[in-house]
Amino acid sequence: MRRVVITGIGVVTPLGNDIETTWMGLIEKRSGIDHIEKFNPSGLASRIAGELKNFPSENYMVRKDIQRLDPFIHYAIAAAGMAAEDAGLISQESGVRSQELKETTQNSKLKIQNLSLDSAGVIIGSSRGGITSMGNALQKHLLKGKPFSAYLMPATTISMAPSYISMKFGIKGPSIGISTACASGTNAIGEAARMIRHGEIDLALAGGSEAPICRLAVGGYAASGALSKKNQEPQKASRPFDKDRDGFVISEGAGVLVLEELNHALKRKVKIYAELAGYGISSDAFHQTKPDSEGEALAMNNALKDAKISIEEIDYINAHATSTPLGDLAESTAIKKVFGKRVNDIYVSSCKSMLGHMLGAAGAVETAITAISINIGTIIPTINLEAPDPLCDLNHVTTTIKKDISTAVTNSFGFGGINAVLVLRKFIG
After folding, report:
1. Angle at CA 373, nearest 5°, toward 83 and 51?
2. What's the CATH number for 1-417?
3. Looking at 74, 264, 357, 396, which residue is catalytic?
4. Is the pLDDT of residue 199 over 50?
5. From the candidates 74, 214, 264, 320, which is the catalytic residue?
């Protein structure tokens, strides 16, 4: 079976519009959560979120596309462009970020040394797709009588994110949109890795993107009881595994990785962050919103089996850990079921304590963070874990620590009992 490695990373998050700023925020224990500014949240039970700050859409898209396409597509193309640049597929000199991504696709067939991007793949996941544009359009239509835009449907469909990326880069391989709730980004990465493993493609841009900070999404999630109501202390609202947790904090952002067949990457002599060694999926077959530890444990075991890695080899788990009472408990129980007596030896932390929950983009960003953690030997902390829930008694990391990581697990679990888990390991040439 062919091996898959990560050679490029691009993210936009509530902590920063690139991976460098985001990473620094994480290791410095800064929260990206604050009061909602994108719309007036008055009357809603939850009025806090992780919003992007000063995101420069104009650096990646022409004005007409900025106006026509939903923000989740803006975020996806930005993350994809940064990942491609990081992997050496494009360069600043080529004008891709400042010019190519702002122009038409007429000259967008960029080259990987002597190899074309034509046959690469693009797989992007999203839970809510263009919900912001749909909500705004409906409001304007009902309240102001505005006609619907001819671009509303194509601009909001989940598959438009990978399609737009393929157009901008001239990629003619598989272009797939995936929607599996909060597991979407992780599933996108896992399915792209499968294609590479089986020889269908040698390279893929894969990840997730989400732009749900609108009244429709925030109000809907709040009505279900899933969101934190700690509106007076937004930076302390996301508190995974803490006994005072009361729900997740909704966020926006995107994460895209360049996945590559190992020999393809070695031939290009590019940096390798980590190897994507295993991918496991499962369904709880239990409830629409309540998680089940049995299904989550099955996905972790499937990923370990796929990677041909034993529980003794795992050093770190980047947990799904959304800060919901039921979710964190189920994940803690699942981890204990899988790792047994080893559970106290495995470090566990949660990006969502600082980033909030980016829904379909969360797993992609967390995979990127896990890859960097392995590459440089640093584990990011869980913040706001002030009074650990005794039922979630794992080996929690609450301060940034230096630690050589051989192998790590990153979990993603979505509504409907959709579970996706990736195993990453240090690449040793």
Report:
1. 60
2. 3.40.47.10
3. 357
4. yes
5. 320
